[in-house]
């Protein structure tokens, strides 16, 4: 069974956004990964809900929305209205994570939680059966094009063990420095979904690269 691929729109050329999204539409990609940054939780700003409304109109792929913002629970309804299939919030940004996960599900979206590189997977032990997916950041969040953190491979393995031990159905997603080499290591460790930015949108043939990643 091939892994799911979620190209990260953060790496796209926003000067020709329609064309970039159409490339993803024409590919074997499963989702389109959308990073929303507020310049507070992470040291960068990306785009907000008006742009996401435009993306929703163009994308034929389900939207995997990753909120790198403080207090993401305040924007659950806006994320839903922007067309998100899955809403991803950071463990580090949620004071009441269980409540936030339940509210996301009540809005009809899949619920996911993200862990920064320094956050251990054991902290999810009491909630792993409640989430649909866990995103492991394999770079420090905020900027694309960073070097892959090798410890992420062991982290994925530990998360897989936790999921199996707790009889959870949560998927494992990994984001940061993903290419054909690192992607293979991550998939072998137990990942189900790969988020790929530069390796896709900077490729000479993004559609072909997505196909190669999907077969890892």
Automatic annotation (TrEMBL):
Chain sites annotated for binding substrate: 8, 66, 142-145, 175-177
CDD domains to which the protein is assigned, alphabetical: RPE
Catalytic residues as annotated in Swiss-Prot or TrEMBL: 35, 175
Residues involved in a divalent metal cation binding: 33, 35, 66, 175
InterPro entries per the UniProt record, alphabetical: Aldolase_TIM, Ribul_P_3_epim, Ribul_P_3_epim-like, RibuloseP-bd_barrel
Chemical reaction(s) catalysed: D-ribulose 5-phosphate = D-xylulose 5-phosphate
EC number: 5.1.3.1
Listed pathway(s): Carbohydrate degradation
Cofactor dependency: Fe(2+); Mn(2+); Co(2+); Zn(2+)
NCBIfam families found in the cross-reference section: PRK05581.1-4, rpe
Protein name in UniProt: Ribulose-phosphate 3-epimerase
Protein species of origin: Coprobacter tertius
């Amino acid at each position: 069974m091939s892994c799911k691929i979620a190209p990260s729109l953060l790496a796209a050329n926003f000067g020709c956004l329609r064309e970039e999204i159409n490339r993803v539409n024409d590919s074997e990609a499963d989702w389109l990964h959308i990073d929303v940054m507020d310049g507070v939780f992470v040291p960068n700003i990306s785009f907000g809900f008006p742009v996401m409304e435009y993306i929703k109109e163009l994308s034929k792929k389900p939207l995997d929305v990753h909120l790198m913002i403080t207090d993401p629970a305040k924007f659950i309804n806006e994320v839903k209205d922007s067309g998100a299939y899955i809403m991803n919030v950071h463990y580090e940004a949620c004071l009441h994570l269980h409540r936030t996960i339940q509210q996301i599900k009540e809005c009809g979206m899949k619920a996911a939680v993200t862990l920064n590189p320094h956050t251990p997977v054991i902290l999810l032990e009491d909630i792993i059966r409640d989430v649909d997916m866990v995103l492991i950041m394999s770079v420090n969040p905020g900027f694309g094009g960073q070097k892959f953190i090798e410890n992420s491979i062991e982290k994925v393995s530990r998360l897989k063990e936790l999921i199996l031990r707790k009889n959870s159905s949560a998927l494992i997603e990994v984001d940061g420095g993903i290419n054909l080499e690192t992607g293979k290591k991550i998939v072998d460790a137990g990942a189900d979904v790969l988020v790929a930015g530069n390796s896709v949108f900077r490729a000479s043939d993004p559609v072909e690269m997505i196909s190669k990643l999907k077969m890892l």
